[in-house]
Amino acid sequence: MLRSSVLPLTTIAEHPEEALSSSLSAPVQLPTPDNTMMLAASVPPVVATPEPPKPPFSIYTVQEGDTAGGLASRFGIASTSILWNNLDLENADNLSLGQQLRVPNSDGIIYEVRLGDTLTDIAGYFGANVQDILNFPANNLRNVDDIVENQTVFIPNGTMPAPAQPVPVVTEVEPATPDVEPTDPPPATDRPSSSSGLIWPVTGPVSSYFSSSHPLGIDIDQFRSPGAPVYASASGTVTFAGGSSCCSYGLYIVINHGNGLETAYAHLGSFAVSQGEYVEQGQVIGYVGLTGYTTGYHLHFEVHLNGQIVNPLNYLP
User: Fold this and answer.
1) What is the DSSP letter of 105?
2) Highest mean pLDDT among 54-63, 177-186, 205-214, 250-259
3) Same structural domain, 202 and 278
4) 26 belongs to a structural domain
5) Which distant-in-sequence residues (6+ apart) come within 8 Å of 94 by Cβ?
6) Rounded to the nearest 10 degrees, how much is the dihedral formed by the CA atoms of 138, 142, 145, 150?
7) Which terminus of the chain is more exposed, N or C, with fewer CB under 10 A?
8) b vs e for 91-111, b when ≥16 Cβ sit within 10 Å of the residue's Cβ?
């Protein structure tokens, strides 16, 4: 049996020196620290890491039975946001199986910045608010001057301007197919120009005309000429040379000819010029390809006048 080290009160009173010696020799009972407190002290505080901005759009591969309206409902956006960001869709409710679409994560416009663009001009063209563009996290813009060519920005709640109403063409003349091999097209400098000064960018039959169902230009068939050179329809400055191979226009070029006139060339396989370069009429700017949404080799060609898409056949010889 263990003997207690605590002395009785009488002993303490009679022999204080013995009480002091006994108390000094007794083991000291320290409080046991709480395990939870020890663990909390040993683990550094967790600092919340901000989540990266959500990308403005995703690439969706069309499945059987999909429609633009159905996809819009599934992703919680307006159907126009799908149509406006996949401009080469001819029939919104007859999508092609396996077709890839750019589906924005909120309503608005996906836009690739062109040479000379300002954020104020972009916002004005799409009827949007400059501050909303700056505040959109994925844009990562610090101020109105913080944009560069070829940068992709998202225009929240932007709307696509309505294209010009189709105007009947007095004389629709399709360019004749030359009696030469498709890989050896006639020199562009030998082609006649129209009264507006434009020449045909490629030679071939028109497979899709400018109309209410195809309001974004014309398609010039190149099924016999994959990889054929594409010529500048007029002299000017290349304001855009880029795009995405997966969707919509694919790789495309825009040329500013001055006086409000622009031309666009889509579904290219590769470029022969770069953004900011000045090109002469008839100069090779790229080559026919299959990029973007296209079911076969063709060149999608547009003419813009003062920011509005017009019928190219009214400007070609």
Assistant:
1) S
2) 250-259
3) yes
4) no
5) 67
6) -30
7) N
8) ebeebeeebbbbbbbbbbbbb
